[in-house]
Structure prediction request, 114 residues.
Amino acid sequence: MGSKEIALGQVIDGDKVMSLPTHVTHKANFIDDSTPQVRESRTQRVRRLQEEARALAREQIAEFEVLLDATAKAAMEIADGGEVYSIGAREICRRLADELPRTLQTLQVISKKR
Prediction:
């Protein structure tokens, strides 16, 4: 594989070379004397990051619950779709439509305990 030369401000994405914006705004590297700087201890930072991770986990579970509900509804539509769908697909979807609401309910109970 031959080497590729790229100009400053460009990045390789697969086989494509993309140009990056030339003007990048950034904050000045000085401390504003008008606001007191309170340094966060490592323990405080760990606790804050753990709480952020927990919040993201709760958000992801909530999104997954919505997807499970939508999947159960789609499965029911296929199960009730008649001869258009193969008997195997209808049977699998019928089982999913039966099982997913209980799975969703269990997940909701488990996630509320935390």
The chain has a mean pLDDT of 82. The beta strands are 10-13, 16-19.
